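pinned: reference chain
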Amino acid sequence: MAKIKICETVLRDSHQSLIATRMTTEEMLPILEKMDQIGYHSLEAWGGATFDSCLRFLNEDPWERLRKIRDKVKNTKLQMLFRGQNILGYRHYADDVVKYFVQKSIANGIDIIRIFDALNDPRNLKTAIEATKAEKGHCQVAFSYTTSPIHNNEYFANFAKQIQEMGADSICIKDMSGLLKPYDAYDLVKAIKEKVGDMPLELHTHYTSGLASMTAMKAIEAGVDIIDTAISPMALGTSQPATEPMVAALQGTEYDTGLDIDKLNEISKYFGALREKYLASGQLDPKVLKVDVNALLYQVPGGMLSNLISQLKQAGKSDKLIECLEEVPRVRADAGYAPLVTPTSQIVGTQAVFNIIGGERYKMVTKEFKGLVKGEYGTTPAPIAPEFVEKILGKDAELVTYRPADALEPEMDKLREKCKAWTGMTDEDVLSYALFEQVAAKFFDNREKERLAIDGKNADAELGIHAI
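pinned: its structure tokens
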């Protein structure tokens, strides 16, 4: 049995889960060189919601963040999360955008791209897989783990074999809601390993339901190769299991990670100070740190739960939370048992809220939910009943039975033309605009104002020098 490898998530999913992805690049930089000396298998440092948050909330260029991290991390692989045909956004993008985003991600410092699709539709993975292979990146393909009458070990093992044949270099079990129980994890890992042989298998899970450390241990015993953990001050709750306890638990066994607890403690002290800062500022809400049984009862990930609470509060219906939570699995069943992860978690959750506050199921139907039923996001795990399709879309609605991205015209040339409105635009800037048009436009406007202000100050200083 090989030593267990550790992917450290504190630079991406850990703070995405606990503080809505608000850790700044400047907060990361001072500790990166020490993290690089730990011996981690990889640092998950980019992708997911970090890209959006950099532009939308932190006034940071996400590409510049990646370059700065890469500059400090010389020895450890950098990893990102990539939503298949959705890239890092919320809709399907044309193939030329997907390919170019992969190319630029690897050119700017990414080594491992973890690709997943919310519906586990392999057609939505194809372009990103091929692009990663073409750029010589490590292509890790993840499946979104969930439970339902049709999701079982055979389903996931067969899917793992399919993505292996599509070109994956490794496979990840992506348990975004913390649903995977310890003994189920053991059986699942065994089933996958029987199908894919020696291909590296990674486990990503969340502590939301309180099971993650036990689940990781049983997965290790079953033969998983890599586990995702977060340094302890930014672990547990809606984040990942803590790095140091997992390393300590495996010390002296055949699974020993070989990582040094004393060196990890230096990392822990650094992020411990940041944790205190986040608690004091209110960015870290103690509520996200508790075990939440709702994760097991309703399959609602932490971020989805906070969205539900926010939507109900805005509607003045906070007292309807339990009813909405109970409605989520019903909506999910109606919609073909889609796993609840971005963007399907938002689509199903919002429709559940509408069903409850509207007083009648599907009296109001969102555009996105209609799109899900129509097939615009891909094929759902289970077929949607024809009578339900008619209820949502009307009679004789044309369903999307082809790969959704096949209907999209190439976008890059049009995007470059639109971006001529700003000076000094890079190809990376064009990709930022492609994913988050309005948010990126605002960011570019602010950046241009800052440049003009700096140029103005420099010109004043120059005049002053000549005057002397």
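why pinned: Strands lie at 5-8, 42-47, 77-82, 112-115, 138-144, 170-175, 201-205, 226-229. The radius of gyration is 23 Å.
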